[in-house]
Known about the structure:
Blueprint: H1 2-9, E1 13-16, H2 26-53, H3 60-89, E2 93-95, H4 96-129, H5 134-137, H6 140-158, H7 160-166, E3 175-176, H8 183-187, H9 195-228, H10 233-241, H11 244-266, H12 272-298, E4 300-308, E5 312-320, H13 330-355
Parallel strand pairs: 1-3
Antiparallel strand pairs: 1-2, 4-5
Amino acid sequence: MAAANLSLSNPTTFLLLGIPGLEEAHSWISVPVCLMYVVIFLGNCTILLVIATEPALHRPMCYFLCMLAAIDLAASSSALPKMLGIFWLQAGEIHVSACLAQMFFIHALSMMESAVLLAMALDRYVAICFPLRYNSIFTGPLVAKMGLAAMVRGTLLMTPCPFLIKRLSFCRGNAIPHTYCEHMAVVKLACGDTTINRVYGLSVALIVIGGDLLLIGLSYSLIIHAVLCLTSREARHKALGTCSSHVCVILISYTPALFSFFTHRFGHNVPPHIHIILANLYLLFPPMLNPIVYGAIEGTYIDKKCTFTGNVSTRGHILLASTWASKPTKEATDKNTLSLVMGLFVVASCQVQLLR
């Protein structure tokens, strides 16, 4: 009996159930999820390849874009293969150590992405408010230090998480009603006092999301003030145009995250499958849309000769976001910006409808 209780309280494996209430639709849900993973992989790999091989793009903002692409690839690869295994093969069983590792990497990488978005906002602030000092301020070593700081912050903030989970007893079973090992989904299985875990999760979220959003908002308020002081309408439009892709990426990244965060903690009347869908949107949408947004906003085509192993070569146009590679026309920029804003509005509207 004691051994049975020990096994129940300290399971060696968890069972990921997928999306509760939509089990019969798992095979259908897997199709768009798989396609999204392909888009994520191809889009972000293209960004990394083109920037790495094009000397004209070796600039601070493009380095940050590379960091963002690498983080998106790592975060999606931490969850999507297992998610597809659940949908296709009902392979939901996962070892406790693997579950904690997945939890660590998903949340730590999300924090790193938030830090990179903050660094990109600071880059735009310096470029617009102090253009003559930009090259002397945003040097290669500074960009490397900012990337390292983002990695260290995410790692340090998430390091306590596995240890806080391991101290818990899971007397409510080992079935996690989720597609991946999300922190609060695992904590809800525990019996006893979970106050420390809940306070820790809330505090980290407020520090990362709240702090980064506050600094990003401050940066853009200073940018807007500087732009409004410009006398030329064309100069104002050009200055704001360099920020449009970054603003869209911020909206894409933080909107699903905030919806998921608030519904998970305060939406007690929200159906469980809505929690899971929002969490998946938070994990899938930013990595998929970030490369598309940067390409659509800037409208830059790089005519590049791509040589592959096996002496196979092709010549084509690779779509990439680069503020400095070309100067899009006002009409094209307005059209692309309007299309993306409308798309973001539709996504936000759908999420609001789901919460009702």
